[in-house]
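Protocol step 6 of 9: fold each sequence in the batch and record its structure tokens directly after the sequence line. For illustration, a two-sequence batch is reproduced in full.

Sequence one:
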Amino acid sequence: MRIQKFTHFFVAVLLLAACAATTAAQQVAATGKVTLKQADGKEVPVVGATVEIHRIDIKQTLKTKTDKKGEYVYAGLDLVGTYTILVSAPGATPSYLPNIRISQRSINNFSLTPGDGRVLTLAELTAAAASTGGTGAAATPKMTAEEAKRLDEEAAKLRAEVEAKNAKITERNEKLPVVFNAGNEAVKASNSLKGAEKVSKLDEAIAAYNQGIAIDPDEMAVYRNKQIALRSRGVEKYNMGVVAKDKAAKEAGIEAGRNDLKEAVEAGEKAVAIFRTSKAAATATPANGENPEISILEDRAETYRRALQIKSPIDNDVAARSIEEYINAETDPAKKEKMQSSLGDALFYAGRVDDAVVKFREILAKNPNNTDAVYGLGLALASTDPPQLVEARNMLQQAANKAPEGSSRKQEALEMVKYLDATIQGEAANKAQDNKADKGRTGRRKP
């Protein structure tokens, strides 16, 4: 059983952190948004716009770019500095704000208009100001007391937001590794246990992972490991129910196992979804060339496989798609073959009986000794329209012969064989009766 380990334990504190302590550090952050006005008047975010922040009093130039929301941030600017901000972007006319105090006006937005995408330089602005005696394009705009108050309030609000976010990040970095590792250790300890002791240890693991999700609901590894713990606990509960002597205990154990597998499937789907939405920021493909997504898909497919085996209340169509997605992504032939039968099972339980028959025959053509496929084909043939009873009976007898003594698979296969034998004999008797009736009618003389 593979337990996911963090590849990126700690989340960095926001770049704006310097802004949260401006009084002590005498620094502030410049932030804002860059948009482009469309022909219809609609403003859309500009991704990758170049934002140059020039400190005028000491000749310092700083650069950053806007993100996918068109937003930019640059932390660590001196509180007392005077700055000019220049913004340029492909397909747009450049814009600027001259001679501003970031401490008084930390949020500066830019609305660009379509243009040639040229980059405006500080030298051009300086020359324009000189040619107009300082009253031209680069002249400093006057700020009213009301505007200054508003900008101060916006800056205070931004600092408060950053402080709150940084506090949450600090809590996450301190607490999440502790509960995550506690869950992993509990799962590891459960591997050597059985029955109620195993279930109890997995209870601990799942409780720890739930704490981790409460701390950071977007950490893929926590959902992935919760899935594994739920899967293991579900199988153990189901098996305990199967062997229970008391009818109530048997039914309760089987139902609890199925419900755990259903919850495990949900956790696996969540892990895949988080990985895909954060893939750009996730750990890059390792040097060995392995695709990290394949192992995540494998875990999810394995959970669906187990859920199908114990008839958990899951969406069988989704199970079929998820298992097939993993098979298509997997590059290891042995792993591909192992999961093929589960795809056939998923197709069968989803009501796609003919597709299941095709899949099981395809598997057996390559490996006639695949007992899962033999059993699956027997069930599928018995469910076709019309049912192929004789071949179905023979396949299920093969499955029973190959299954271990005392296993649930052997018992289920033998029960199906018994049922099909009775059905085949009944149909044969009915056919003989019909033939006898037909002969009686054809042998009767006409009056």
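Sequence two, same batch, same settings:
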Amino acid sequence: MLIGAALALGFVGVTWVALEWQEVAVLRTRAPDGAVRTTRVWVARHDGALWIEAPTPERHWYRNVLTHPRVELVLDGQTRHYRAATVDQPAGHERIRSLLREKYGWADVWVGMLQDTSRSLAVRLEETGP
């Protein structure tokens, strides 16, 4: 019993470190009913833009972006406004997977064992101002 509890606690601890230890941003999207939704996301910089990943097309925040592409991102304590655009498949998927693997290393591998990202989508954020 104690061994099982210790293993479960260790699993939760490693997962938390993998998800939260490195740079994490808060994405604010607008739901169809107008409500603002927040989601914690990993972010990568490439070609003068920020990139985030929707692990599956069914993610609520991604569906919000399709309807309302203007989003806010809180990163390093600063809130900025962006226009979100999905990058075409399969190049977008390959790009975001490469960027996140390079930046987050072992954490990306760990999370990849927990979340199937084979259908993930790359979302490029272009800063727009307020």
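Proceed to step 7 once all outputs are recorded. Observation for sequence two: Residues 53 and 97 are 8 Å apart (CA to CA).
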